[in-house]
Amino acid sequence: IAGEGSGDGAAAGAPVAIVLGAAVHADGQPSPWLAHRLDAAAELYTSGRVEAILVSGDNRRAGYDEPTVMRSYLLSRGIPEQAIALDYAGFDTYDTCVRARRIFGIERALLVTQDFHEPRAVAICRSVGVDVEVLEILVLVFFCAAGVVGRDDGRSAGFFTFHGFPISQLT
Questions:
Q1: Other CB atoms within 10 A of residue 68 CB
Q2: How far is CA 99 from CA 52, 151, 167, in A?
Q3: CB-based contacts of 152: which residues, under 8 Å, 6+ apart?
Q4: Which residue in 6, 8, 9, 125 has its CB near the most CB atoms, within 10 A?
């Protein structure tokens, strides 16, 4: 969750949370990055810190639809459909912030993204007239598992697997 808050952020709120899109898998599931963003937005809504959630992402090619996957995920977490707005043209952070202001009329929001993206996203939103706040930063730790597998032709092939976990799951 990104922006500048008043300390611990426990009481901070805004009319809407803006969830920036990220990759979705071919099976229609959000990537770990995106799932963590959506979980944070769901918590903001259920705790009463926001009244609505704007999900913004890429939908420019057939068979790839970040906003619809995001809505489905939030619905599965108990967020009512009427509390979720979809922006199908959030192709990048700039587009999302501009559209949040010009199309959706958002002046103040809580921005949901990962810590590495937060300074840039906050600067962009503020530059186009959306006052975004930071409550806490969702930090992910990534582990890389490397290994070697045998191939049918007797040669070996290397592989890398990346797994993301919120720090809270590791402690």
A1: 16
A2: 16, 49, 32
A3: none
A4: 125
List the Cα angle 7/120/164 in 5-degree steps: 80
Q: Residue 119: is it exposed, middle or buried by C-beta count within 10 angstroms (0-12/13-18/19+)? A: exposed
CA torsion through residues 64, 50, 126, 35, sign: negative
pLDDT at res. 102: 97
Q: Are 1 and 44 in contact (CB under 8 A)?
A: yes
3-state secondary structure of 148: strand
pLDDT in tens, 110-164: 999 888 888 899 999 999 999 998 654 444 444 444 444 444 445 444 443 344 4
Alpha helices in 79-163, H assignment, sequence order: 93-102, 118-127
Using N-to-C axis directions, what is the helix angle for 93-102 and 118-127, rounded to 10°?
Answer: 40
DSSP label at residue 159: E
Amino acid letter, residue 134: V
